Amino acid sequence: MTMNEILRQIETGEETWKDQIETFLLENDPETIYQTSEQVASYGFVEEALRLLEHLSYLFPEEDQLVVDRALWMLEVGQEEGAVELLQQIPESSDVYPQVLLALADYYQMTGLYEVAEQKLEAATRLLPDEPILQLAKAELKRETGRYLEAARLYENLWNLRDDLVHVNLALKLAETYSAGAAYEESIPYFKEALKAGEAPDVLFQYGYALFQSGMYKESIEQLDEVLAMDPDYYSAYLLSAQGYAMLEQNEQALERIQQGIEKDGFEKEYYLFAGKTALKLQLEEQAIEYFSQAIALDPEYIDGILNLVQLHMHREEYEEVIALAEAVQVDGAILTALYPYLAESHNQLENYEQAYEFYQLAYTEQKEDVYFLEKYAYFLLEEGKRQQAKTVIQQLLSLQPDSLEWSAMLDEL
Predict the structure, then answer these.
(1) What single-letter DSSP state applies at residue 195?
(2) Which of 40, 90, 130, 229 is the most exposed place for a label (fewest CB within 10 A)?
(3) How far is CA 274 from CA 143, 181, 238, 326, in A?
(4) SS3 helix, strand, coil % of the chain, rounded to 5?
């Protein structure tokens, strides 16, 4: 059996070649066997590639390159302990020792031992200070550990060698690294360069996001439109482009775009929240109520949706609805805490003074820095004849507004 016959069987889906590996090993020279191991591994038959390399290692026990190759494929199939044992057998004096250090760095990085991985890479770099693959590995490690500026500098150092790194889209790595580090403007030219290699929805979306974060909303929408033209089910693009329209104060287009997103995916509470806020800008209060209600229906503990709906009901003086909504979501104490000021005011407006007093007391603990709340609470206490408590609240108001003549006079009066 020849290498070409094995590859032909792989391409046609046959597997009889696996049973003839021993025959193949006997009939072919070491160079052919080595090339075949690379080929079958590239097709995903790593176990079989390892079998071929083990045979070569038996024939050439002093060949360290074969040990490294075996270890790399063992790491690929989850045989980490055996791979590390093989790598540790290779002496520092070996020509392939930098490869050993790189392989160990990959292993330790994969297992989350980032400091050890970095030590291995630094040791390899001391042996081969100008090796681009090592510089690339260091950049990848720094990027993975959140050191985006350091990673970007290393990628930048490799920029003039990008033609040699034919399998690496260095422009995309730089774009994504700058973007991950919130250096969005710096990422833009690299996204443009990366897209020359071909447009893909994910890259276009990242580019659109970087443009949005850089305040280039019109350009961001253009890229996101391309994303949706390529993939109408790219749900994240609907919200981001709608936000772009909102930033341009094109609220009708923003609402239309988020409605398109809702039609595609009706289970994203953030879509309904954004739609509700946008409807309010267009003075479509009934629609806003419906959108906020839909968001809460998807997640009864969605505090942003609940607060927006409560505030809208308060604006419309629909105090019964505020109380009913609070009762519907009272499963979470944290949510209720945020609603206490609204419940206090709602009960007060409905002349349920005992309940209003109860909620004002509950709200006071967490609202001591909120001047608007304290003013309402102070007036409520005065109207209820609770002068001593009113005095305490007014003193708190004066600590926040020491120049207020109104509260100073009122405190003197008390």
Answers:
(1) G
(2) 130
(3) 33, 26, 11, 21
(4) 75, 0, 25
Listing DSSP states for 78-122 in one string gives T-HHHHHHHHHTS-TTSTTHHHHHHHHHHHHHHTT-HHHHHHHHH
Are residues 190 and 174 in contact, defined by beta-carbon separation less than 8 angstroms? yes
Q: Kindly report the pTM of this predicted structure.
A: 0.81
State both tokens at 329.
């979501």
What CA dihedral angle connects 239, 245, 250 and 251, to 10 degrees?
Answer: 20
Rounded CA Rg of the chain: 33
Tens-place pLDDT, residues 96-150: 999 999 999 999 999 999 999 999 999 999 999 989 999 999 999 999 999 999 9
Query: Structure tokens of 232?
Result: 């109408």
Q: Which two tokens stand for residue 267?
A: 């289970």
Single-letter code of the amino acid located at 256 = E
Tokens of 34: 């080595």
Using DSSP, state whether 266 is helix, strand or coil: coil
Helix (H, G, I), strand (E, B) or coil at 268: coil
